[in-house]
Amino acid sequence: MIGPKIQELRKRKRMSLSEVAEQAGVAKSYLSSIERGIQSNPSIQFMEKVGKVLGVSVNELLMSQSDEEIKENLDDEWLRLAEDAMNSGVSKQEFKEFLEFNKWKQNQ
User: Fold this and answer.
1) Strand, coil or helix: what is 21?
2) What single DSSP character describes residue 49?
3) Cα separation, 96 vs 92, whole angstroms
4) Could you tell me if 27 and 21 are in contact, meaning their C-beta atoms sit under 8 angstroms apart?
5) Of the candidates 44, 41, 36, which has an alpha carbon nearest to the alpha carbon of residue 17?
6) Under a CB-based contact definition with an 8 Å cutoff, are residues 72 and 79 in contact?
7) Quick check: 49 and 6 in contact, CB under 8 A?
8) pTM attached to this predicted model
9) Top-confidence residue, 74 or 47
């Protein structure tokens, strides 16, 4: 999954395989094998180097298409609310329980 993502980002930047490999300081053959799915488990260091050249974080390289769509559909207010909840100490479990309680309450 990472290979096609790297290839897509590289093509969007209109960079050749050689350019990315050279700027990232990685072997062109290894980058090519990652893009083609021959190698599928690159190191974090590799992803950091390539990501830096492509202008994305390791997290963005690892993010699936559905994750990206979810992120695009979340507006800033939802993101701030989630951050505020996490920063105030609300756990995932507590949040799930609140949602379940709210659903139950609406059905009463």
Assistant:
1) helix
2) H
3) 6
4) yes
5) 36
6) no
7) no
8) 0.60
9) 47
